Predict the structure.
Amino acid sequence: MGWGDPPHEGYEARLLRDGRLVGVSSADTDRESTGYVRVVCTCGWRGGRYRDPGLNPDGRRWWPDLDAEAESDAAFREWRREHMAPLVDPDPDSVLTLGSDAGGLRHFLAGQPVHAGTYLELRLPDDRWVLIRYEWSWDPTVRPRAYLALGARGEALGYAELVEFTLPERAELRWPAEPMGRRL
């Protein structure tokens, strides 16, 4: 139908003269159309009004000079920015941002500098959090790395295997509730 997946599938619905919104174009909706569409979502959310790329009752385009692709793209961007982003994008305070301080270029989390070897918590599915160690090469073209300790018989003695991986740009992180000693 449009963008996204149920229960949040966005699309352009034709605005009819009686105020109804319909997601299909037909000869009947051509006759009843106002010349506008609204960006909507299957969950009930309603966005702004855009020019209808369809036909008027006379069988001609409502807006002959309309760049239909640009208009549809603007509708999509509104749906994504105003409706979906607050539902699915990470909180800005929970992702690493690149900046600089007196020590030079570095990542920040929730406004605080993150130093190599810092322990952070990484969000997993079902709101589970796991402790990782952050490392970065100070190369802005390379994403930071994370180290996750696996469980093992010798973990109490500091002998545990580590899994190393690149931290994705949208990885959600937080500062541990308790200060961390040398753990990984």
User: Anything to note?
Assistant: The chain has two helices and 13 strands. The mean pLDDT is 91. Residues 118 and 177 are 13 Å apart (CA to CA).
